Amino acid sequence: MNSIIPTVDTIAAISSAIAFGRGGVAVIRVSGSEAIDQCKTIVKSKAKYAWESHRIFHGFIRDPNEKKLIDEVLVFAMKSPNSFTGENIVEIHCHGGLIIVNQILELILKLPTVRLANPGEFSQRAFLNGKIDLTQAESINQIINSKNTRGAELAFKGVLGEVKTQINILKNELIEQLSEIEARVDFDEDFTEFNYSKFEKDINKTKQKIKKLIENSKRNSYLHNGISIALIGKTNAGKSSLLNMLAKQNKAIVTDIPGTTRDIIEVNLTLENIPIKFIDTAGIRDSHDIIEKIGIKKSLEMLIEADYVIYIFDIQKGLDDDDLKIINKIPIDKLITILANKIDLVNKIDHNLPENCTLMSIKDKKGEEELINKIVQKCGNNESDNMEILLNDRQIMNLQNCLINLDDTDYIISNKLPFDLLSIELREAIKNISILTGEELTEQLLNNIFSKFCIGK
Fold it and tell me: Could you give the CA distance from residue 82 to residue 131 in angstroms, rounded to a whole number?
């Protein structure tokens, strides 16, 4: 992609969600040193406070070439440096839908020095102009893409600067440890003998804090990305019926004919504020049907690809060796429960069922609450209540790299090698943690981060 480091260009983009024929109001954002002067050429207004900073005024969009009015608008001008980007900004609030919004945007893009903004370019200019730090910028993107309330709440803490605060605490601990080592190198005669044990204790405290941040963010990544749960089992076990029960509508075809489901069926739901994609799969059995065999192959792939698995079997038929072979292929950390369905059709429950077993009658909706509780418990929803911040994949990677540097000090400490070698690892650890907050960045990395943003942000 082209560089999106700010230039002399004035940039413009639609900053609100739009759809054909829908939306009462849309917002077009223009940012740059010439944003106000350029927009004055297409906005006609008699408002007393027109173009004063941080004043909203009424006006009309006028096509200067065709000499006609296009739309009635409200205009919000913000003069540098008191704006989101730190530059002059004009926001034009026009009528929604696709036609009018794009007409106005096309008119703006015909103005001298104005071009279409690249993805995330407004946020990137805000970062480079010192209005926000990198973690705040990324938290803005997380808010936009949040799939539930809790995820949005944690992302907003990042906007308020909580991510940077937590990271700076770790960084300052490492700087303090590095400072002592470097002081010893320069003024060794003024210090007592280097205490490897104390250094190890201090560095381990920092490592544990980093590990906790990483583990919490990984475990609760569903707050931002959602999770997938595959419904696995033999034919006619009740997978499609379970999907329909959870969805509260008939999403999958249910018949008594084995092999009805031959492809993957996905349904997105929210349970206890957890965004979940339930995946109904083809029943696993020996089959000579080419299409069904393809579906069965996909089912087995879901054992690995899905975040979690619910294995369903018919309690009338019991668990046989074929069931156990499939269950043993499921990674233990992915198995939510083994679900014994059709308990309404048996007089006596087998007491030799697996320990992690949920008894259900999908037909009578018995056991639904227990199943949902297991899903919520397995996904760790309650653990998120103790989280203060939410890290994205890039930030987690930077922390992991920092942790690798700190782990490399173990060998130096255990063998009591010259303590000045510790400064090398500490410097690299500080560098990696600084990249997280945007203090050690290359243009390529910056472009990559902001290219994942929507164009209007």
Answer: 9
C-alpha to C-alpha distance for 162 and 160, rounded to whole angstroms = 6
Cα separation, 247 vs 245, whole angstroms: 5
Mean pLDDT, the chain, integer = 82
In this structure, the strands spanning 10-14 and 25-31 are antiparallel
Q: What DSSP string describes 3-36?
A: --S--S-EEEEE-S--BTTB-SEEEEEEESTTHH
Looking at the domain assignment, is residue 180 inside a domain?
yes
- 35 and 155, same domain (yes or no): no
Q: Is residue 331 part of a domain?
A: yes
How many Cβ atoms sit within 10 Å of the Cβ of residue 122?
30
Total domains present in the chain? 3
Domain co-membership, 237 together with 372: yes
Structure-token pair, residue 356: 């992690």
The boundaries of the domain holding residue 52 are 10-131
CATH label of the domain that carries residue 80: 3.30.1360.120
CATH for 351: 3.40.50.300
413: CATH: 1.20.120.430
Closest CA to 255 of 274, 272, 235: 235
Position 137 in a domain: no
Q: Mind listing the pLDDT tens digit for each residue in 299-334?
A: 667 777 888 888 889 888 888 888 888 888 888 888
Give Dmax over CA atoms of the chain in angstroms. 86
Distance CA 333, CA 267 (A): 23
Tens-digit pLDDT profile for residues 265-295: 878 887 777 778 888 876 654 555 555 455 5
* CB-based contact 285:325 (threshold 8 Å): no
Residue 72 Rama label (left phi>0; alpha psi -120 to 50; beta): beta
pTM: predicted TM-score of the whole model, two decimal places = 0.66
Is 452 contained in some domain?
Answer: no
SS3 call for 419: helix
Q: What is the pLDDT of residues 177-231, one digit of tens each?
A: 888 888 777 666 666 778 888 889 999 999 999 998 888 777 666 666 678 888 8
